[in-house]
Amino acid sequence: MQGVWSFVKTPLGIVTAIYGFLVVFWGTGIVFFLAKFINLHNEYTQGFWVELCQQVETGLFTATSIGFIPFRIMDTYRICKIWHYKRKITKLRAKAGLPELYDPDDLPDPVYDPNYIHVLSEHEQIDLHYQQHKFMASQTWYRPHGTQTHRAFPIDLALWICVCNDLNSFFQVLLSGTMWGLDRFQRPAWTTGTTLPAAFVAGIVAGVLIYWGGRKTRRTKEVEERLRIALQMEHEHNGQGESESSASRTHLPAINVTSDEDESEKAPHGAADGTQPSPSLPTVPMSSSARSSSDTATVPGAYEGDGQEKEGKENGKEKAQSDKAEATAIANSRGIEPGQEQQQAAAAQEGAVVRDAEAGLQPPRRPTTERRPSGRSLRFADEMVVPPVDRLSPQ
Q1: Where are the beta strands (DSSP E) in the chain?
Q2: End-to-end distance of the chain based on CA atoms, in angstroms?
């Protein structure tokens, strides 16, 4: 219904809807007055209203049946030429020993299939292509070639549809001639009683053939098969994505980040109950600014790279301790007290800086990553700035 309403809102749809309403309204009037569902109890008046409804109905059908006669004649001429080329192609292919076409209604066209074997002359092939596209533009239900959803429309059936349309126009001409050429008192009853049903039947048969041809050419099985394959692929893709996401959630543990206050609040309760606290995930202390945004958070952790980094830090600490122990042993063997060697090295370095300053040499800059060996310098910046020479000289 949405498609019908969308068409009715267009200018052509409005005209079609009004035309259809008038045809149904006046046609119903003919039936009601003839069957005397509306009985005026007067033969003259009853006949007058029957005649009025018939005249209006005839005029409505004349607008379409007789008004479209030039277009219907041209369409019949084109479909006859297409039907002639179809029969000629079949005869020429059989004479040349070529296999039959997969679809006899889908005539080969070099515009779409350059590898097609020509059996018609170049002029005939161009004319066939022209007639097919002109007829398709006039009759929207006709398809000269197959598509993904439909096969080519049967040419024989298209010819019969055009013949029925021509018969509808022919009987409508006879009906209009008798209705407008003879008085209702002198007009024989059989004239309208035969031409009117014949015009109706011809138009109805043409519509039924169009509907049947459209259903016959649908590729229902092919479309259903493609749709089934597409749905199956989508289902498999979604299932694979869900399995991957669940696997990633399984192999990615989380670290519970809590604050110091939460730990201090949890400890007394456990002690008061006399129960041992259950093992939990490693906790990371949170700053006060972070605690204001959330009390507890979970972050991904325990990756393989984290274990390697932790192991490297432990090895570095062990190496530093061993180096410190070795340096202490060397200092004890030389008779130097612990810490005295570092003080001597710092004093020698300060003396070298003073001598370089007196000689006008630029003092060397320390790398930002290097720190002074003295413990008191850890409170200052990474790079120490040497004061001017006049401040280093005694006052």
Answers
A1: 254-257, 283-284, 297-300
A2: 105
